[in-house]
Design a protein that fits this description.
By secondary structure, chain A is an all-beta fold. Chain A contains no helices and eleven strands. Chain A starts with a strand and ends with a strand. Classes of the chains: A mainly beta, B mainly beta. At the A-B interface, strand 5 of A face strand 5 and strand 10 of B.
Chain lengths: 110, 109
């Protein structure tokens, strides 16, 4: 299970605040991904990055932003523009096809 | 873009019986089809995958079949055990990975 970490495990924020979720990997993987998981909706892709200093919008990018300044790190910022931010957020990395997931961060916004 | 549909959303089987989960995809360019198992409160983990040049793959009690013409693929679990209880996700990879909505499998002892 080691190699890709997310912190914190639980995060609570007030509505209107931006919040940044951390994702770090030491697997030397080029590609990294952010997914949002809601009950009954599976995993939906927010953003992905195939190489340092480059990233692409996924299917539900509105209200989120990312950066990829280092190969090991791919932080996700949930902005106040995201209408329903409360969810379970999963980060993943891959070298080729297989994705390795982090343990996730459960974000609650009230 | 790719659309992946997964059925059923919930599945209950008696211990020892088989379980089958089916997925369809829309993008004929998709060429990699993984299956992930997610236990409650844990991260998804890859259990088996299949590439588009193969029709079937087995790993002990689990197998995956792929029909490229019909654009569907299935997960088969035989001799189910209580520890197989989890949510299972299929996915299809073309330019990016698209996941199905998940199947909650309950194996009743």
């Amino acid at each position: 299970d080691g190699g890709i970490t997310q912190s914190p495990k639980y995060l609570f924020r007030k509505e209107g605040q931006n919040v940044t979720l951390s994702c770090e990997q030491n697997l030397n993987h080029d590609a990294m991904y952010w997914y949002r998981q809601d009950p009954g909706q599976g995993l939906r892709l927010i953003y992905y990055s195939q190489i340092v200093n480059d990233f692409q919008k996924g299917d539900i990018a509105e209200g989120y932003s990312v950066s990829r300044e280092k190969k090991e790190s791919f932080p996700l910022t949930v902005t106040s523009a995201q209408k329903n931010p409360t969810a379970f957020y999963l980060c993943a990395s891959s070298m080729s096809n297989e994705q390795y997931f982090g343990p996730g961060t459960r974000l609650t916004v009230t | 873009g790719e659309n992946v549909e997964q059925h059923p959303s919930t599945l209950s089987v008696q211990e020892g019986d088989s379980a089958v989960i089916k997925c369809t995809y829309s993008d004929s360019a998709s060429n990699y089809f993984p299956w992930y198992k997610q236990e409650l409160g844990k991260r998804p983990q890859l259990i088996i995958d299949i590439r588009s040049n193969v029709g079937e793959k087995k790993d002990q009690r689990i197998a995956v079949t792929l029909n490229k013409t019909a654009k569907h693929f299935s997960l088969h679990i035989t001799e189910t055990q209580p520890e197989d209880s989890a949510v299972y996700f299929c996915a299809a990879r073309g330019q990016k990975v698209t996941f199905g909505t998940g199947t909650k499998l309950q194996v009743i002892p």
